[in-house]
Amino acid sequence: MQQHGYRASWQPDQAATKADLREFLTFRLGAESYGIAILKVQEIRGYEQPTAIANAPAFIKGVINLRGVIVPILDLRVKFQLPMAKYDEFTVVIILNVAARVVGVVVDSVSDVLSLPAEEIRPTPEFASTTFDTRYITGLATVDENLLILLDIEKLLTGADMALVDSAVH
How far apart are alpha carbons 52 and 19 in whole angstroms? Predict the structure, then answer.
């Protein structure tokens, strides 16, 4: 995995055992920080304009050829209904292995790889609104006084969305 010189800034307590730690790749979308399980990450690449797919949903930016594998590129800003950002030199694509597929997600920037003790991960709060879907949020953690939203990338990128990706790409 390419790491672009990123380093972990948080060091686990020596008392915590390796089994108690969970590793996350953290990234930014706008002002918010997110984390995904490091084991889902294949590599991190600089953003390159994907080949557009006609009639694809807005969150599918297109596809790239990654060493002979056609990889759909999804924009998490669009998926999360965030305002569009200008793609710049910090914009990256995280290549993921999700549900036996290789998928790329566009994020504003990659921050760190963090090891978090399980006890520092708080459950997602319950919301009464049915329009706000929290099924893909596995928990919340505070790192350096900043809130980190931990995503279950499998739940986020499976089901109806991946059916749309499959139909757009094939």
Answer: 42
